[in-house]
Amino acid sequence: MKTRPRRGSHGDSRPRTSSRAKLGSINTPARNAPSSLRGKVALITGGNQGIGLAVARALAAEGCSLVITGRNQSTLNKARRELERRASVLSVNCDVRSATEVSGLVEKVKTHFRRLDFLINNAGISHAAATVDRLGAEGWQSVISTNLTGMFLVTRAALPLLRRGGAIVNNLSIAAKKVFAGQGAYCASKHGALALTNTLREELRSKGIRVIALLPGATNTAIWNQFWPYAPRSKMMGPRTVAEAVVDALALPGDSTVEELTILPSAGTL
Q1: Which of 55, 68, 88, 91 could make an S-S bridge to 47, C-beta 3.0–4.6 Å?
Q2: Per residue in 78-127, pLDDT tens?
Q3: Structural contact between residues 239 and 195, judged by C-beta atoms closer than 8 angstroms
Q4: Given its phi and psi angles, is residue 63 left (phi above 0), alpha (psi -120 to 50 degrees) or beta?
């Protein structure tokens, strides 16, 4: 099922009309009515920047406790300090490509919070634009290991901590359904991740755990610097727009779900 965010679809500067807290600042007071997400525990890989950090901010505003990961200790520390103003935060330096590091991450989550309600598989990388005949094996492996194998490793390790009524959100990008010349490894990783997401959804239905495929279009994050530094960022969505849509999907009653969430900038595909 494809859906659109109910507001804010034209960028971060558009005022919101719902009763949710505004997310532009981590210090913004929460909405008056209690949030259905309050008290939930969310693990967000790649939560130190981009869409991952935007989702962390949004969930903090809803009263969630957070676990954020990243490989850059400096940006991880900065994100933790910001988010701690509104939420209980555990930050863990973790390379999702490593089964050992992922196991250590989940052990820390178990010790600190004892459970998970939401898993947001957001960690991902791209590569410099290169046609398949010029794409090195090392670059290919790095992207596949992060975007596909990393998602598998984190999900497998975290599943025992997820409870009925919880949810997994896999940030896949529209590259999970489209292809872009010069991005062979990235597109392959995302197509594979969509297949993994769809398989996981069927496996977890009976356990009451929702699985959401998040397919955002062009979003203004640092990943563009890896393959298109001069991309027209004015035509992109802000990460907050994507985060708001994720929060809305997670806040649905337990008897309903958004299985596929596609959100695009009004300018369309770049």
Answers
A1: 68
A2: 999 999 999 999 999 999 999 999 999 999 999 999 999 999 999 998 88
A3: no
A4: left
The whole-number average pLDDT for the span 9-31 is 40
Structural domain includes residue 250: yes
Catalytically active residues are 186
Q: Give the Cα separation of 115 and 133 in Å (integer).
A: 45
Q: Would 7 be classed as within a structural domain? A: no
Q: For residue 194, give both structure tokens.
A: 């969509």
Among residues 123, 120, 80, the alpha carbon closest in space to that of 101 is found at 123
First to last CA, the chain: 23
Decide: residue 137, CB within 10 A, 0-12 exposed, 13-18 middle, 19+ buried. Answer: exposed
Q: How many domains does the chain have?
A: 1
Cα-atom radius of gyration of the chain, to the nearest Å? 17
Largest CA distance in the chain: 57
The dihedrals phi and psi of 16, each to the nearest 5 degrees, come to -95, 150
The answer to whether residue 270 is domain-embedded is: no
Domain encompassing residue 186: 41-263
